[in-house]
Amino acid sequence: MAAIDAIFAAPVTTPDIAPEKLAELQALVESRRPGFSLRAPFYTDRQLFDLDMRAIFGQHWLFAGSIAELPEPGDYITVDFGPYALILLHHDDGSVRALHNVCRHRGARILTEDSGTTGNLVCGYHSWTYAPSGELIHASAPGEIDFDAGCFALKRAHCRVVGGLIFVCIAAQPPEDFDQVAEIFRPYVEPHELGATKVAYQQDIVEQGNWKLVMENNRECYHCDGHPELACSLFPTWGLTDETVPHHLTDVWTRNLSASAALEQRCRRYGLSFEVVEELDTRVVGIRISREPLDGEGESFSPDGRRLSKKLLGDLPDFRLGRCSMHLQPNSWFHLLGDHVITFAAFPIDEGRTLVRTTWLVADDAVEGVDYDLEALTHTWKQTNLQDKAFVELCQRGAASPAYEPGPYMKSEYQVEAFVNWYITRLRERLQ
Fold first, then answer.
1. What is the second-level CATH architecture of the domain 2-162?
2. Are 165 and 58 a contacting pair, CB within 8 Å?
3. Every domain range in the chain assigned CATH 3.90.380.10
4. Nearest CA to 82 among 332, 350, 357, 329?
5. Which of 204, 215, 277, 284 has its CA 20 to 30 A from that of 416?
6. How does pLDDT run across 6-54, given as a tens digit for each residue?
């Protein structure tokens, strides 16, 4: 076990950055103007992307999936964060293990499918075989000299499951405040009982944009006039205040305030957490979470706000619970409703491409065609994701232009500023 623990703690790094380039990157970080968007290289430069992989995705807790995606022992999913390839495997003891998807012989990818079921892990190149826990159990060939198989287990990443959400950290020493943040969001998430859900649908979209543009776009609703399907149920006044609501949204703002008061009463009656907790750039594991009303009937993301599945999740007492909305830095956001849950994750590919994965979860006893219509369940966010893809790609193309320069954030974009401030702070820490 000592050898396995050593493998577990081994740091994994990206290639070194040349000293002259490092000085250039440090100057870029220090030149960031608060309240303004980032300079173009943050979205277009390959070596800055490599720094992101080291300083952000190689150091911090990342959302990777949900327990509904690998419900039984032996089930697995594979995920890639830039150069890091991981296997998430549901172990026989009920835990989830995170293993680097890299054979210890000559580095071949071991599992090549996005998901499946497996016993031992067998590399398809030379049949090196690993136990589900990562130990090397077979690497023999005629005439070979014996070697210490205990020194060639698969490298591990840290893995935590909280409320049915799976998080991984590649760093040798993960950020220490994750447990504190988990205790913040646990009471919001646990009533939805993700362990008793199943995947109704999963959508993968490759956006031709840097991962930070994906996250910035998600962190504001200034652009929500471009989401007509979502505007049916999601109040387009998100992020606004009495002082910043434009005249054409006055009626919507009034309706939102009334719905918020009614939702707060229901949450107090049922003992559900609803208060806003916003620590997006004041923690290493940045978070924002709250329970917020939906328009119309206030039940789900439908044209009239009515439920999209007949099955309540967990032991929730009411469909009309709006949405529990959570943002976690650096790569995820979530909507938890009475009838279904939607998880979103950004997986960087390179400096100009990001995989955005959206997963719809429903109660595990919900029957498609009886309890929910799949097209109706997924319609709003399928369309919204395609619209967001177009917005991100417009920004990526603009950032590549010599005419681009950072522009000011509006007051309603304060969460974008918080994300960028969190990001710059993390880079500064790493560069120092």
1. 3-layer Sandwich (2.102)
2. no
3. 179-431
4. 350
5. 204
6. 455 444 444 567 788 888 899 999 999 999 999 999 999 999 999 999 9
